[in-house]
């Protein structure tokens, strides 16, 4: 059995006047064997570990809008906990959190106005974002290219002065949701007392083993600034558990293509590259789109919008990206998630038998178009 001393980190959990402002401190502590030592010390109730996993996440960041800070606006946190339905609501932000929450309030009956600085879902493939804006705007009040000048709160009403597409407007609402970005929680951890390094945006730097710059201190999840999804932090957590406690073998994390979805109507889902990324990376590709309406299930559902977009490498037919907008996009995309994880091609998509009628037939029809294009190029 190995024993001796090792430099480790102490997370202080004092309370009241004894609460430690800098909760993580470096300290030498005893090691017993090669198992993780968990030892409760006396005094302030410190808990000592050989390994620390930092998964403290991120929190909403407030944009710099004059007057906003002195109003009782909601972030996603309050919006998720609110029990009263406001008659009207303004949502500031065009990312998935703003859209999903605003959409949910709208579905419950609030009159929701979305204020978006530039475009909605600006990180999605351009054609998907275009279709989303078109369809979503048919059912919701959306102001794009909006510059918010000032926010006030008086007589239980939010007053928001904006310039939208060059025109000044004053909007009023009972509730205001601000979901215009997030920031890492690293500033709340007292990391300045440690050698754990952060990047210029404040996210924790880790290597390919998810180790921080301090031995035996790992980090995962939003606080890395890589991916901001529940399923990606789950993947990282499972990786750490497997390599450290099951296999006990140091091996680097290898992310398969990381998918995501936006749970609005229409739904959006994505895996792999966008067309804009392929252009920027100078990859020779083909791009095809197949509408929901061109499949039996799409017709039966009377789909008048939505499509699947498939991007494949011209030379090999390898699928590089898949995007879906429409009913159950988050389910339909799984066909492509598996395919891309297995490094599959357009031909692979056409090898299997699809149930008729079913939504994945839209994917098959996109693959047929891609095959034709690959043969003629
Ligand atoms: C409205 C909303 C909807 C979302 N929808 C989806 C979705 O549909 N699908 C999806 O994949 N992802 C979604 N996400 C993103 C997803 O929630 C995050 O990516 C995921 O939770 C990140 O996990 P994490 O463990 O890194 O951080 P978190 O889940 O944020 O957990 C961090 C934890 O650390 C705690 N903490 C922070 N500081 C300290 C401290 N100093 N000491 C002790 N504890 C601390 C926090 O209280 C929190 O409990 C959504 C996020 C929001 C806000």
Automatic annotation (TrEMBL):
Keyword Membrane assigned: yes
Q: Give start and end of each Pyridine nucleotide-disulphide oxidoreductase dimerisation domain.
A: 258-366
| Domain of life where this protein originates | Bacteria
The UniProt keywords, alphabetically, are:
FAD, Flavoprotein, Membrane, NAD, Oxidoreductase, Transmembrane, Transmembrane helix
GO terms classed as biological process: 2-oxoglutarate metabolic process
One GO MF annotation is: flavin adenine dinucleotide binding
Which residue intervals make up region (Disordered)?
A: 1-24
- Domain FAD/NAD(P)-binding, residue spans: 40-224
Which SUPFAM superfamilies does the UniProt record give? FAD/NAD(P)-binding domain, FAD/NAD-linked reductases, dimerisation (C-terminal) domain
**Record field: transmembrane:** 89-108
One Pfam family per UniProt: Pyr_redox_2
User: Which cofactor is essential here?
Assistant: FAD
Family membership noted in the UniProt record: Belongs to the class-I pyridine nucleotide-disulfide oxidoreductase family.
Query: Which protein, by its recorded name, is this?
Result: Dihydrolipoyl dehydrogenase
**Species of origin:** Leptospira ellisii
